[in-house]
Design a protein that fits this description.
6-stranded mixed β-sheet, 4-stranded antiparallel β-sheet, ATP binding, about 30% helix, ABC_transporter-like_CS, Rossmann fold, nucleotide-binding, 8 helices
């Protein structure tokens, strides 16, 4: 049973067809590398899955149950989380406070409710340990490496018990060592049965962790195949149009 199945998804903005008849299945615990040139439709597809855009036509299925998302909160409640390229984290807060941002734990003292910082730190520590990250709950984000910041953003998805995580260029603009750290985080998500859609222009990173490669060109899906059966040369050809379909 697929974690997520897209059936003939089309998205148009007036006369512009951003996506045309895209069908794709993603299995539980599968990492799918979503690739394509700028303007190929990757961001639009992610926004359809995440509830930012309603498809013009086509259907979405979660565990073979048809779903409709009218806003991002609908997708989040259904178990879909997005880690955007800018991470949407606050530099002046600790790792634990960022993990719980907008979902803070509270406890009752007499007639008052106060934020349970100790509880948040303990739970954040559990999530970082699950990800095998060295990030510490009390650390301020502004002092963290790019890899540690990704760990904070990914821990936030685990807090909501997500079944699907969409990651937008998680290895862009970070060092080689930090790239290795982020790829390990993705592997840990997969090992916990979470499906991951990895959007990236960095082909070596995609082939290192992806089980499946999906390629978009001009809004159409031109390939969806096992990574082991593809190659960087083939993907480059598909992105540029030198290869029509695979």
């Amino acid at each position: 049973m697929s974690a997520l199945r897209l059936a003939n998804i089309t998205k148009s903005f007036g006369a512009i067809h951003a996506l045309t008849d895209v069908s794709l299945a993603i299995e539980p615990g599968e990492v799918v590398g979503l690739m394509g040139d700028n303007g190929a439709g990757k961001s639009t597809l992610v926004k359809v899955i995440a509830g930012n855009f309603a498809p013009t036509s086509g259907e979405l299925f979660l565990s073979e149950r048809r779903v409709e998302f009218h806003k991002p909160l609908d997708a989040q409640r259904a178990g879909i989380e997005v880690v955007y390229q800018d991470l949407a984290i606050c530099n002046n807060l600790s790792a634990a406070s960022n993990v719980f941002l907008g979902r803070e734990l509270t406890r009752q003292i007499g007639p008052f409710q106060i934020i349970d910082y100790a509880g948040m730190r303990n739970r954040a520590a559990e999530l970082f340990a699950r990800l095998k990250s060295e990030t510490r709950p009390r650390d301020l984000v502004k002092r963290m490496s790019g890899g540690q910041r990704q760990a904070v953003a990914i821990a936030r998805t685990l807090l909501s018990d997500a079944s699907i995580v969409l990651m937008d260029e998680p290895t862009a603009a970070i060092s080689v060592r930090q790239v290795a750290e982020v790829l390990n985080l993705i592997r840990h998500l997969r090992d916990h049965g979470i499906a991951v859609v990895l959007i990236s222009h960095r082909m070596p990173d995609v082939f290192e962790v992806a089980d499946k490669i999906a390629v978009l060109r001009r809004g159409r899906l031109v390939a969806s195949k096992k990574a082991a059966d593809s190659s960087a040369e083939e993907v480059t050809g598909l992105i540029t149009g030198a290869i029509e379909m695979a």
